[in-house]
From TrEMBL:
Record-annotated HTH lysR-type domain positions: 6-63
Taxonomic classification: Bacteria, Pseudomonadati, Pseudomonadota, Betaproteobacteria, Burkholderiales
Protein name as annotated: Glycine cleavage system regulatory protein
Family in the record: Belongs to the LysR transcriptional regulatory family.
Keyword Transcription found: yes
Example of a GO biological process term: DNA-templated transcription
Length: 314
């Protein structure tokens, strides 16, 4: 039985090299030398009688045979990992046999501002699924094979992946209610009189144009590279910030922040959820996807705008 299987290390090298499109990066991941990975690939190719990779510039691109074999190896290793995870859970003190670990990569802002406060409800609803949450800050999606599920700004266009749009969101302006109270008879036209917090990844221009105001970017004050820190500054009363509405639904509902006007503009990037077709943990993935949809549907909707453009508060 299993007499045709090559050494496990060769299979691991194949999977990593196909995923990274690089023998060097595969070697770094597996703590091997480049020559060792090359040796494993030559050994596999001799055993199979066909090429598994072809060099294109500085990249090692798997052939059709190599790509299919690497995907089958990836699925098999995922099943083995899940089997060992279940076995460990069954032998640990108080462990529950059958527990599934699901690795989820989530954009940092969505994880910190919206998802983390709701994770306890996922555990209550699915006690047999343990989420390993990995945050991702770059706009470009990482290697889609590196996790079970990705919640990223970019779609995964590779064959064999399912990608679903998470929601229709929009960008709004928010600030601490005390900030507006400092300007008697505040209207949206007064917004430039307030400190306007700057975000490295979003311009004020579109919001200002939609509000009928001159599209002059603020030129003073701190610039935030992280949206979570930007919102902390807004909650602390340091200025007005533009943000995705989903990220501030909770703070708007609690009164920590108020929306400035009713201007709502489309974001430049959307959230997409992606996973591999026929994934060995497909049931857990679908449970996670359904939970996210239900939580979004239950998230407090925006109330009436605090100040409409051109109007003064009563």
């Amino acid at each position: 039985m299993f007499s045709h299987l090559p050494p496990l290390q060769s299979l691991r090298a194949l999977e990593a090299a196909a995923r990274h499109r690089s023998f060097t990066r595969a070697a770094d991941e597996l703590n091997l030398t480049h020559s060792a990975v090359s040796h494993h690939m030559r050994s596999l190719e001799q055993q199979l009688g066909t090429a598994l990779f072809r060099r294109v510039g500085a990249r090692m691109i798997p052939t059709s045979v190599g790509a299919r074999l690497a995907e089958r190896v990836r699925i098999g290793m995922s099943e083995l990992d899940e089997a060992f995870t279940e076995a460990r859970a069954g032998t640990a003190a108080g462990g529950a046999p059958g527990t599934v670990r699901l690795e989820v990569s989530v954009m940092t802002d969505l994880a910190s501002q919206w998802m983390i406060p709701r994770l306890a409800r996922f555990s209550e609803r699915h006690p047999g699924i343990d989420l390993m949450v990995r945050v991702h800050a770059d706009i470009a999606a990482p290697d889609p094979y590196s996790v079970d599920v990705g919640v990223w700004h970019q779609r995964v266009e590779e064959t064999g992946f399912v990608t679903r749009k998470l929601l229709d969101d929009y960008v709004i302006a928010v600030c601490h209610p005390d900030l507006i109270a400092r300007v008697p008879g505040f209207t949206v036209a007064d917004t430039p009189r307030l400190p306007m917090l700057r975000f490295a990844h979003r311009s004020w221009r579109d919001w200002l144009v939609a509000a009928g105001l001159p599209p002059h970017e603020p030129t003073r004050g701190p610039i935030f590279d992280d949206s979570g820190l930007l919102l902390r500054a807004a909650i602390a009363g340091q200025g007005v910030a533009t943000t995705r509405s989903l990220l501030v639904r909770d703070t708007l509902a609690s009164g920590e922040l108020v929306q400035v006007g009713d201007i709502r503009i489309p974001p430049s990037l959307e959230y997409h959820v992606s996973w591999r077709e026929n994934h060995p943990r497909e049931r857990a993935i679908h449970a996670f996807w359904q939970w996210m949809q239900d939580e979004i549907a239950a998230t407090a909707p925006l109330g009436p705008p605090s100040v409409r453009a051109g109007e003064r508060p009563a």
